[in-house]
Fold this protein.
Amino acid sequence: MGIPLYPVHLEDPLFQGFYDGLDAGELRITADAETGEWVWYPPEVVPGKPDAVLEWRTVSGEGKAYTYTTVVRSLLPGDHKAEVPYTVILFEPDDAPGVRVAGILVDDEGVEPACDMRLRFRPVDAGDHRIPGFAPVR
Amino acid sequence: MQGNTIAVTGVGETAFLRKGEESVMHMMTRASLAAITDAGLKPTDIDGYVSNKYAGHPSEEVAYAIGAGERRFTAVADTAGGTATTGDALRLAQLAIEAGLARHVLVPYAIRSTKPGGVYGFHAREPQKAGLEMPVGFFGQPTYFATMANRYAHEFGMSEEELAAVAITYRAWAAITPHAQRREAMDLEGYRQSPMISTPLRVADCCLTTDAGCAYVVSSTEAARDLPHPVVAVQGVGIGYNNYPHGVLFSQKPSTFDYPGWESAAQAYAMAGVDPKDLDLAQVYDGFSISALVQTEMLGLCERGEGARFYAAGHAMPGGKMPINTSGGHMSGGYVPGINLLIEGVRQLRGQEGERQVPDARLCAVAGLGGNNHSTTILARI
């Protein structure tokens, strides 16, 4: 399986904390700093709370796949033929109900992707940055 | 709103091309003039417009291009895809006509799928997709809808053969539609030869790449009686919405394939005073096979979770009990989002479709998906 190589543009500071977490080997999600309620993806305005402050919180990395697909033809802008196939996962952390993190399936030799399969967070290198990887729990 | 107070009095389109040479404005103009002529009207009779924000041309440009008279009413559909061009536009037209603000409302649309930047360019500009999804390769409608298909199959069961039946059905209709883009026969083996994009969706499961324009004219039912064609009235319209912006719609919505079609269908049937069993045929927004079969369920044409098996049983095929996408839909006929499906519904109810005419067609549902919204329209020959 391949790994998508697409540049991460962090001109938007909304996502810096996520990639800082990946560099530290952690999966970090945004939450309302006052209430602790998960707010994901980090929006420009927290719904109903324009004064709310978001903070990044680390989750355990244990969870399951809501769904998946194996990308055979990349639709990313540019030429990405050499990077396919890879399997995209929408990961649901056990300790962040209602949150889904997009990532790729890793360490999956001999395992067919499936909805609700148990997964564990394992970030992977993708060029000059890291992206979320999720490995099957065997 | 009451049903049967407005009618679609004129329809028109340009040729459906894989790659055309004309601009969106040029195609919209040709389609608009064709629709106005079809209605037995002149451009100077058009006094209302419902534009579409994705077409990129406001009504004054269209009015100027067609040589129209005074504009008395303009509005812009705020939705996307098949909602904007069908249910949303029809609601706005009905409001204008019933309020006496316009007599004949033009609804034009055109698409250049081959434009620079591609059809997914607008998603690439969404910060959350650029920041969190594109770096992991989760990008483009076929990929989003493929994840829906796998989740749907997990919850309800769906074999490859059952999913394939959607594409095979629409291709069977396209084969007897002279203006359809993909008319060559396709069986299960042919489907399996279609290149995979994102499992389980193949090229054959996706809408076509089309450069074309379509337009229609809406008038009061009373005015329609003096125009050339049998009266095809709008008997019911319903629109369902959710508030998930496109940046989070395909990942964070609790059920990613639970479009607001249940709401739109309930509204439309209530306004029309009919049930799904009263329909003679349907046109269903088939951006993808998976979304089409889910909407087939939402229209009440089969039970929840039985959409794929409904198609596999042949019910939507020519000669089936509920013909669906009778000009090949967006997957085999052509992709001018939503609007060419509405036009096909109108023509079927006029009874002028030749080989593919559904016998004695008097009631047609048109389902339009627009991501975070969905419309159901009930057209009736009265």
Remarks:
- Residues 119 and 136 of chain A are 5 Å apart (CA to CA).
